[in-house]
Amino acid sequence: MKTKNNTQVSEFILMGLSHERGAQLFLFTLFLIFYLTALPSNILIIITIRGDPHLASPMYFLLANLAFLDIWYSSITAPKMLVDFLAERKSISFGGCITQLFFLHFVGASEMFLLTVMAYDRYVAICQPLHYTTTMSRRLCVTLVTASWAGGFVHSLIQVMLIIRLPFCGPNKLDNYFCDITQVLRIACANTFAEEMAMILSSGLISVVCFVALLASYVFLLTTLKKTAGPSTRKALSTCYSHITIVIFMFGPAIYIYARPFDEYAPDKVVSVFHTIIFPLLNPIIYTLRNKEITTAIKKVANRCLFCKKK
Predict the structure, then answer these.
(1) pTM
(2) pLDDT digits over 78-88, tens only?
């Protein structure tokens, strides 16, 4: 992209999380553990759900798709960050920056929409149990998942189109470990007020509206469930609490980052780390620890693998 003085920014310098070598090595080890735990954990959830006929309900189909999105989400920023911890010069090309930004918002928004679909699934299961299998058919589930991906794609495309038309004429340092809208907008050589407002209305509004709608729906479901009693009710309550936990961890950081003016604040990097590195690990932990059917199925898969090795 060329500007009025014919200069062209071909790359961005990433300032990272720390400049001290000891701290960088510690963070490299820590985040490598997070990444190498999140990746196989989400893969194991997908394999378990796909391989166990007892986990054929729509809820587990959606959960497998959530795990698939988490694999993508954790791989957008983590590998590049880990490499940069060991590199002297931390940089990313302009095209690489835009690509990272696109997939971050594509997968992130798709996951938000999918969580909304999962809330609808729980509503039908709890409030219309007799019609659950017919209402939440495989065809409808596939349609809703596809719509979530399509919504994420359109949202991310809007973000990228707003960014690539801006001029970048010299400043190229991003005070973070990855490319994101809040960082890139600050160094553009133009008045970005209109773009910032558009992105706040896009990213911020999606986050806030989905978060409020999800919390309201789960409050309604919890109120409905507490009026009844029994083993199935306790299981449904446990599932709802798991979903609420994921919703808070997903939408809280997103609202903090995107639903306010894009000024720099001290906790920004910490929130970004939680949002892009730690969060993808929480889904498998929360769902496996609170769901006996998944833990039982995972044990069966593990025992089957051990049995195959002994043979």
Answers:
(1) 0.89
(2) 999 999 999 88
